[in-house]
From TrEMBL, chains A, B:
<keyword id="KW-0479">Metal-binding</keyword>
<keyword id="KW-0460">Magnesium</keyword>
<dbReference type="InterPro" id="IPR008949">
    <property type="entry name" value="Isoprenoid_synthase_dom_sf"/>
</dbReference>
<dbReference type="GO" id="GO:0004659">
    <property type="term" value="F:prenyltransferase activity"/>
</dbReference>
<dbReference type="GO" id="GO:0046872">
    <property type="term" value="F:metal ion binding"/>
</dbReference>
<protein>
    <recommendedName>
        <fullName>Heterodimeric geranylgeranyl pyrophosphate synthase small subunit</fullName>
    </recommendedName>
</protein>
Amino acid sequence: MSMARALSHINGNSVFHVPCRPKPKRQCPLQLPRRVFKVTVSCNQSYWDSINSDIKAHLNRAIPIREPLTVFEPMNGLTFAAPRSIVPALCVAACELLGGHRDDALPTASALWLMYSASFTHEHLPLTQSCRPKSDVRHLYGPNIELLIGDAMIPFGLELLAKSDDRTQNISTRILRVMIEITRAIGSQGMIYKQYHDVERHRSNNNKSYHVEKLEKYEGTLHACAAACGAILGGGSEEEIEKMRRYGLYVGKIQGMVSRAERNDKELNKSVEEMRRLATKELSGFNEAKVQAISTYFESDFMYAQF
Amino acid sequence: MSMARALSHINGNSVFHVPCRPKPKRQCPLQLPRRVFKVTVSCNQSYWDSINSDIKAHLNRAIPIREPLTVFEPMNGLTFAAPRSIVPALCVAACELLGGHRDDALPTASALWLMYSASFTHEHLPLTQSCRPKSDVRHLYGPNIELLIGDAMIPFGLELLAKSDDRTQNISTRILRVMIEITRAIGSQGMIYKQYHDVERHRSNNNKSYHVEKLEKYEGTLHACAAACGAILGGGSEEEIEKMRRYGLYVGKIQGMVSRAERNDKELNKSVEEMRRLATKELSGFNEAKVQAISTYFESDFMYAQF
């Protein structure tokens, strides 16, 4: 089977083909050497694009714009308002790498998407006495609605996940394990901790190095969680789950580095290259065609996703 | 066995005995006829008090004040800052009524407590351009912290619940069902919907009757959910689960009525009496000693809990 065919049918899932026309280039936050950050637009990118399209379709089915419109319209709107993130797709890719079916990972990926969107919404709420710098995010709704709908999105995502339990397949234990992974990652140990330190960082600029160090410690937590969840759902062994967790962590750290435009290019380039090497190492031993598909990430514009 | 002894040992759980001294009377929002709202302070009240103490102890073990203090201190503080609610204890009481062990319901009750506290915290956030009336709630922390810690409390509660899965007992399916109940109740269908309409009500005072009608429709959703969850965990049949759901709903509606001090006493008194009759009817057929213990609710000052 040719590589192209292998990529278009992973685990019997027909991959959604995005027409092969070059997309408008997204503005890159940094001028980076082409060797590492080569942004080519080819049919290979359709692997990540197709995952993203499937998650979006799943979410649109889960949050149709229906009555009461006052609740479902903003929930749908805010779900898709956050900048693109690799996190949900990482979960699906890891599941497929481990031999799972794409459909098995879509509810978890959707839950992760909702968590991320809720976090983004709350991160940009206009609070009184806020210590944050003014955000230039366009607000789709009033602050009350953005607060409450953000609150609803977290349990709604977990409800989607809990409902995906299929008693005939006896996967309740896997779903509960995934639930623990996600709730922990977005709870005090992970994303919230990061947000908390973001706030603290803006409050006290006098101790910057401490904060960057803290940020780096927690960066990639959600990416690591997403990849580990995919591996759990794909039926991976403990060793495989931990390999995917580390893979996700490196991917998350790369995204963090790219998003922090403070360092000079040379230093950044070196760090990214090292992370990419470590990430690729974690994929050794898995099905080669699938590894190839996943690795297109480093050539895709997902690299420049904000989160 | 005497009633006192029956009450002090339900399902083999030794009930925490609160010393029999009269508590300071809480201010009642309404002057109500003594017949319905007789506030007696007796040893019987120790049933609900003991449940509440056990949930508090469980939460204190789950959220000890430990490092990082910047996260766990406010999480602990905000968890216990919300006004007392009957919701978590309802879950434990329903579980015990159905023959379950108190310990089986404590993680779910703790999750419900955290959901309620998170909701209370966010409901009183000082937002810019807020349409809400000014709240006189004392803020323990800055608005950023209250927003983020509130965000962390929802997944943290669900993590506690997911972690309570005991593979040796094969209860994963029950836990997932409870998870669906809770996430649905606090998501778009329930509490959030209510909050959303609270906000809308304050925004447009010209359509009050419509909003009260909407409020009443969703009132008691979380109480109904808590009681149904307890019944699920206690191993109840579908019919028993639905009976407990209705019981919780009536209790929730009573609390809603008591908290809305707009109507005249006579009308309110009649409605409360009718709800109490319906609630009591749902308990028929269950173990009499346990029904007696649960029914002390109507004599306790839990009736005047804010939520």
